[in-house]
Structure formats: C-alpha cells, structure tokens
Amino acid sequence: xxxxxxxxxxxxxxxxxxxxxxxxxxxxxxxxxxxxxxxxxxxxxxxxxxxxxxxxxxxxxxxxxxxxxxxxxxxxxxxxxxxxxxxxxxxxxxxxxxxxxxxxxxxxxxxxxxxxxxxxxxxxxxxxxxxxxxxxxxxxxxxxxxxxxxxxxxxxxxxxxxxxxxxxxxxxxxxxxxxxxxxxxxxxxxxxxxxxxxxxxxxxxxxxxxxxxxxxxxxxxxxxxxxxxxxxxxxxxxxxxxxxxxxxxxxxxxxxxxxxxxxxxxxxxxxxxxxxxxxxxxxxxxxxxxxxxxxxxxxxxxxxxxxxxxxxxxxxxxxxxxxxxxxxxxxxxxxxxxxxxxxxxxxxxxxxxxxxxxxxxxxxxxxxxxxxxxxxxxxxxxxxxxxxxxxxxxxxxxxxxxxxxxxxxxxxxxxxxxxxxxxxxxxxxxxxxxxxxxxxxxxxxxxxxxxxxxxxxxxxxxxxxxxxxxxxxxxxxxxxxxxxxxxxxxxxxxxxxxxxxxxxxxxxxxxxxxxxxxxxxxxxxxxxxxxxxxxxxxxxxxxxxxxxxxxxxxxxxxxxxxxxxxxxxxxxxxxxxxxxxxxxxxxxxxxxxxxxxxxxxxxxxxxxxxxxxxxxxxxxxxxxxxxxxxxxxxxxxxxxxxxxxxxxxxxxxxxxxxxxxxxxxxxxxxxxxxxxxxxxxxxxxxxxxxxxxxxxxxxxxxxxxxxxxxxxxxxxxxxxxxxxxxxxxxxxxxxxxxxxxxxxxxxxxxxxxxxxxxxxxxxxxxxxxxxxxxxxxxxxxxxxxxxxxxxxxxxxxxxxxxxxxxxxxxxxxxxxxxxxxxxxxxxxxxxxxxxxxxxxxxxxxxxxxxxxxxxxxxxxxxxxxxxxxxxxxxxxxxxxxxxxxxxxxxxxxxxxxxxxxxxxxxxxxxxxxxxxxxxxxxxxxxxxxxxxxxxxxxxxxxxxxxxxxxxxxxx
Length: 955
What we know:
Distance between the termini: 34 Å
Radius of gyration: 30 Å
Number of strands: 44
Mean pLDDT: 93
Structural class: alpha+beta
C-alpha cells in the first residue's frame, strides 16, 4: 500500500487541521427529511422596485470568465461587462536585479532602530521593477518638450484667447476629473477661471491656495507663471506678485499634466477647505471653487511606470427601447436558485419581461426580451467600450463585433453580439442592430482576448469569439437557459440555510439593508451567505482566474487598488468559505494561481533574498508578479506565499484529495518552508529566529519580527512536517531542517496592556483602530491560538481585538465576525454581522464598511472579499472544526436561536445537515465522505463515532 492510501485509510491528519481517526464500526440510514431543500422562486431573491441608477445597484451575473452588471432600465437598458483576462501591461519580469546585495544593510538599519533610513534604502534598491520604468524619464521629457511647443497649449494659456466654447466642470471640495465627466483620462489639460477681485485688492500680493493637485501643474495668473510643482498630490500654495493683481476681472489658468490614473484638483485639506485667494497676511478669502472651463490639450502621455497591472473593464451593451420611459408595475430581481436576473414591467397594458444570465456551458451572456402580446418587442442594441482604441463592425445581418486594444499593454479583445428573433424584422446598420415588432428576441454576447497564460498572449480573440458564437448560433433561448440552470444547480443546490424572519422577503432588498440600522434581519443574513456562494460560482469556477478584489465585475479603467489580488488577506479571504459552503471545486482557481506564483516566487526568492524555495509578497496580478511593490512600509511583507500554501492543506483536510495535494500542494508547502528556513535570522536580543525585513500588514512600517509572520511560519512548518511524514517520510534532511527552525521561531508575547503583541517589542497603541488585525492570524484563519490549547494567549488576543474596535472597512468587519466566532462570543459576532449588512452609504452612519444596495461589500469602494469572508464568519458561528473535532452552534447568537442548515462541510470529510431550536440541536444527520472517526461536540456533550466511507449517521 502506498503512502497516499495509508493516509486516506489508516492515518490521522495533524492537529492543525483535525486529528480524525478512521476505525469503522457501524452504518446508519440517511435521515433525508431533516431539512427542506431550497426551491426555485421562493426565498433566494434579491429584488427591487426600481431600475439601477448606479453600478452598485446593478445586479451581477457571471460564468467564471464573463461577468456583467445588469441595470434593468426599461427604456435604456445597460449591461456593463467584463472578461476576466483583460488586464493592462503584459508578461514581464518583476524582480529587481541586485536587490539581495542590500538585504543585510536593510536588516541592520532596522536592528539599529533606523526605520526611516531602512525604508528609504529599500524603496530605492529593493522594490520590484515597474513596467515602463527603464525609458520613462526620457519619454516623459520628450512629451513635456512637445507640450512646450504645442500651439493649442499656448493659445489655451493666453488670457486674451476665447474660451467661450470650452466645456465647464464644477470644481468643489474634492474634484478629481474622473468624477466630473472625464473618466480614465491621462494627459495635459488647461483649466481657466475668471476671478473677480474687489477694488482694494489692486496692487496687493495674494496667496493662492488650490490644495492638492495630481500630478504636475503649471499655474498662471493674468498670463504670467506664478508656480509649478511636479509632485503627486502636493499642496499648491503660490504667492501672486502684487504687480499682477488687478481690481475686477483676473484670469487664472492651471495647466495640469496627469501622468497616471486619477487626475485634477484633489481638495484643500486644511483651513477653509475650499480653493481661495487671500491678501498676504490677511484673512479675507475670495473663494474660487465652482465652474471652471477646461480644454484637453494632449491625452497621450507616455505610459507611467507601474508596479503591477490593473484589471480592465471590457465594454457595455446598450439597448434602447423608445416609448418605455413611462412604465408601471416594475420589478427587478436576481434569483440565486437558478442564477437568472429578471426585469418585468408594464407599458400601455403590455407586460414586458427580460431575463439575463451568464452561461458557463455555452460561454456567453444571454439576454431575452419577451412580452404577453405578439409583435411587441422593438429596440436598438449596440456595443461600446471605454478603451479609446476600438472599432465596431457589422459581421452579418444579425451580428456586430467590438474590437479593442488596451492602451497600456499588449492585450486585445473582441466581443460579438448576435440577435435571434421570433417574427418581426431585424436590421444591422451604423454598427447597431435594430429589432422591430418581434414576438421575442434573444441577445447572445460572447467575448475573448489574446490571453493564453501569464507568459503567453498569442491567442486569436476573433477566432475564439467565432467559435463561441457558432456553438450557440442556432440554440434557442429555452435550451440555453436549461443548460445554464442545470450546470449552475449542480453546485448551488448542495447547501441550504434557514434562519427565520421569512416575512421580510416581501420587502425590497435595498430597503431591507436600510432597515438593518433599526432591527436585525435573520433571513437577510441567510441570503447573504447564499449570495456569497452565488458570487463564487459566478466568478471562481475551476479553469478560470480566481476572483480578484472585485470578483470579475469592474467598471473602471483605473480601479481601486488595481482590482488585483491582495494577498496579505483579501485574496485568501475570498476562499475562506469555499470548503465549508460545499464549493470545493472553486478552490481550483486559486490553486492554479498559486502554481504560477510558485514558479515566479522562486525567482524572487533568489534575486531579492538569495534564498531557496519561493516567496510571494502582498500583491499579484494576471502576470503573476511576486516581488515587493508600492512602498517598503507595507510592500515588503514576505508571508503571502506561505499563507496561500495553507489553502492546499485546508482543501486536503476537507476533501481528502491526496492526488492533488501530493502533486501540487506538498511541493508548494515544502518550497515555502525552504524559503523561510533560509530567510529567518537570529535576533541579537532574544536569540529567537525572526522574520526581517517585513511588516505587520499594513500597520507600523518596515520592522523585524511581526507576530503575524511568525504565526504563519510556525503553522507552515507544522503542516510541512506533518505532510512530509505522511507522504515523503524518507526526506529526513527536510524534516531535520524544518524541525530545527520551528523550535526557534519567536513565540507570541503578551504585552503590558494584557494584549497579544503585534511586534517583538511591547509597543502596541491602545488607541490604534487600524482595519488590519494581523497579529490575530493565529486565532483565525490559523488555529494555533484557542481557548483549549492556549487560553492565556486567547484572552490576550481578545483584548487586542477590543482595543482595535469594532469599526472597519467591509472586509475588516468580515474578519472580525470570524474572530468573535472563534472567541465563542455569538452576541458580539452578531453585532459585527449587523454592521456588515447595514447600508454602506447612509446619512450619519460613520462606519465605512457595509453593504451596497446590490449586497456588494463596501471597502469602500466595492471589494468582494467582505462578501466571502462575511459568509464564512456567519457559518463559523454555526459550526467549527479547526480543533480536531466538530463543534455545533459554538457562537450562536440569541437572534438565531432557531434554524436549520443542509450541506455544511467540516474538516475530516464530513457533511452536516441539522435543525436547532432554542439554541439546541434537535435533528442531526452527518455524511462521512472519507471514513474518518467522527468527533463531535453539541448540546454540552462530546461524542466519538467510528465511521465508514459513505456512511450516513443520524444522531
């Protein structure tokens, strides 16, 4: 018998994940009636009484690769859509050659308490390479020289030139131009304003305060230059010489060169908090906010250096239906049971219906228009994209094609829209498709890019789209819908949860979110859990990229944080619930990315640390960068790869998939362990092995010995040793090496305030309310700190969380739900659930995180990690299995005293169906998938039951 079979049949996993035995003694019949399964068209609806007016009100659909946001406007329908592989930049090397030569110097500066000097040096020589950095200074200088010779620019700055035809922008407290009608614009603009000064201002020196401007300005007063700063968001406070100042009309012109991402005026942050002019030494302001005229001079600056790529929007499907502006009986919904969105309304006595879904089997976004009268369907449809380099072409009489190229990079994309109708007429002209008097119409949207893998962009998106389109060209809507639902429900129907409060289902979802401020809504919490499963199935299918910061839904060319993969918590949080919520296949998308990061991380380990194994820092993108980015004070964090490797182990503990673990998980875990065996150094003060340089995300800057690093490393080493013993027991050299390091890693410490220390030194600030609570990793998602094994550390961790406070961004609130569940405090955990479900944007509400009307999590802006992490936390309140046994209802709040759950998965290969009443389990059925010994704690008792693989146990 080989080692794999020995583990599956005769061994126990390590304490880190479960300690499950395998002796089988009996078999009992499945008690199938303990839970009523979810039914279509009942409780699992997000629904609204009006169309979406903003993106955060639209409803998401997705098939893992394609995603769309559905607005549901009767007269002007809008589907903003994405394809998961459309990113800017392209394949490249991220490591900075020669970085490791400075490692010892950086370490010594930190040891000498010279943090500022260490960060300065690291920023100069240790951070990863940026795209376009090598020739950017030369190209920028050339562009600025061309601007200096630009006649349009000279005319625009001339106070005597006519600006009456220029567009107008309202400049207020914070007015980056993306929010004022110039989305995703880089380049040179001139802003002009006529400023009227009182008679007593003539001949007096003035102080101009425009606050922050991004990136580079040259400012003129009455045609004379009065100031220039090339500095991202530096304050612009300039002195205007007395000789330039006139009573009455004066001309203020600001030339702004924006090199990357958001641009324009970015708020006065002190004093009046408005742009103003004041006489020197006096407090008599003339406010200059309000209407400014502007002109775009040149919107093609050279590509600015960037550490990692940004996820890109693909395009927009627009459908105009004249005469449908005045509608009644409106209803818009997303049915989680079948992953179909619907819009229904009435116009002139005719009931119209639209259905939308993204089908995985047929790789398309489908929209169907129907009505209860024949010949009632008429509309015009077309495709748009925010990418400037694009074209729309007619393919045939019922198909149009959108072609685009991402400006900053190598990616190209193609989308094709095909229309099928029943009766009526169809016309294709002016790059639009018009339908007249049809009984029914189906729009079939496909999209593809040139992406093959993170090293290869040689695919032909035209042929890919044609293949997708040909496969569904003759498929009727009902067949497409049937295939879609059958495929989706294979995943979704495995799990069900009921927490009561069914009466609230008659209230629109956006109103239910608002009502959370005054009363709990158990059924909304249950809906939130199921919504997270829907979002994972829609954005995290096996064979696709894992969900990024926004899943696959993004409308911005310059999305917040690049909509990348932030691996100091957010990416991992996305997958906290996939195993417990019975979606283990979705873990595969993360595993595929980890495999890529292992390969790239080996390069980073060598170049930056002269170490073996592999390392990954706090962020990655489609091109799988693993080097440190942004700034040393948070970007040099070495534990991202080690944390990610844990996911292979977790998947193994839940599923027993030894083939996957041995072939891919074990090498990743051993490689990450090898890196830390080389990387850790002896602390001169304590003699412990510590992690340096690193940081405690994203708090406190570049340091030596953050607690989070040591918790992750100890956990990694324990897993590596256990797995090595099970699957490669002959590798004694590795075992000896890792055990020798594990014994010396710095332990956790309790500080002067009774808190769990975040750093080696006892310097925690009780007034620090930072959203990251990184030093509690050992509580969750780790399992090193528990009430049973380490009660003193658990108590200290709880004190730390109390000090940090309840408030936070969306994902931070989600993490705190999990913490309070592990602390076995159901009431406090429920308090955090309420904060997560509450409206993100509500007058007077100070908490930043919460839920948008479409239940998307608010960082803000939208980040999907809170959806996934929040659902995982709610389930952690109902069941835990991290201590070697299953515990039922460990942190159940009084509000959830009655409920039921079906298809809940636990470590050791168990699936749980149960009902509870008055906080006690009443019906319990457990399926043993692996034949391990069932160890379970419920209703104040602990039971051990040997099982056989496939047994169904009723307790």
